[in-house]
Amino acid sequence: MGAYILRRLALVIPTLIGIMIVNFTLTQFVPGGPIEQILAQMEGEGNVFQGFAGGGDAGGGANAIGGDDRYQGARGLPPEFIADLEKQFGFDKPPLQRFFEMMWNYLRFDFGESYFRSISVIDLVLEKMPVSITLGLWSTLIAYVVSIPLGVRKAVRDGSKFDSWTSGLIIVAYAIPAFLFAIMLLVLFAGGSYWKIFPLRGLVSDNWEELSLLGQIADYFWHIALPVLATSISGFATLTLLTKNSFLDEIKKQYVVTAKAKGLSERKVLYGHVFRNAMLIVIAGFPAMFIGILFSSSLLIETIFSLDGLGRLGFEAALARDYPVLFGTLYIFGLMGLVIGILSDLMYVLVDPRIDFESRET
């Protein structure tokens, strides 16, 4: 197992570099870089160049990527001013040099500063991370609490009417996009066209600090109810079917027949023997499911419910061409995903020592 983990760890850096190469290359062909946007704003709206001059030091703009060499919005502006902007943002260097400088800094976890927020990327990510972790963690826990009992019941009553109509509901839930379900919840329960039961936006109320401890807890759950429900719908459907199929596989095995032949009750066989073995794959998949929910739905859900999390941060960075934030968060997310993949394999081994990754062909 140790050799397998070392091989997986050795692949982390090349994989991250490959991810960054692809996205770096794409940004070279995307019009409307940060300098072009600044120049266009200056010509169209007057001088709105606020605080950009200090954003291009070694910790920020010098580590940046992308940008266009031709600025259509720069007509009438002095070439020296444009050259100064390029130097401040690091665009006066060749793309290959910028890429190697960026990767060297990223390997040392130096992500620089945001172009437009005067804050380091790390501090910005740490500031937004609690919101996204809240959605991902609660959505995963709720999916497990609902899906495991439902999956077990479906396995026990396989082929019954209960199994049929619940399967239909699960398929519908899986087919509904999370953002569409979120909009439907807003329309129905957040004052859209019907009932105003839940708040429309935010993680807590404006007077949250003035509330008592119990009031703060109630206010927190009141705000996250709809976002968590919208985020967990697809994970709930997948986990339910996974639980059912895992139980069906175990029920058909010989040790279950032997246990029943010895006179054990069906309940004791189910929860004393089958449950422990069937739940191995479900439990081991917790890290991967959490990271999947965290990444897959955070952007749209956070935007719809006006939650200031990592998904919304990445979306706004892409629109503003804030490359340090965009590439820094991409690197962090990619690293987290790769590490979680390794942790998921370790979870499989911990819950079931019979699994041996060393014997797999690589």
UniProtKB/TrEMBL annotation:
The chain crosses the membrane at residues 9-30, 133-152, 164-190, 220-243, 278-305, 325-351. Coiled coil: none annotated. One of its GO terms (cellular component) is plasma membrane. CDD domains: TM_PBP2. InterPro entries: MetI-like, MetI-like_sf. Keywords: Cell inner membrane, Cell membrane, Membrane, Transmembrane, Transmembrane helix, Transport. This is Microcin ABC transporter permease. Pfam families: BPD_transp_1. It is a multi-pass membrane protein. Belongs to the binding-protein-dependent transport system permease family. Gene3D superfamilies: MetI-like (1.10.3720.10). It comes from Brevirhabdus pacifica. It is found in: Cell inner membrane; Cell membrane. One of its GO terms (biological process) is transmembrane transport. It comes from the Bacteria. The keyword Cell membrane applies. The keyword Transmembrane helix applies.
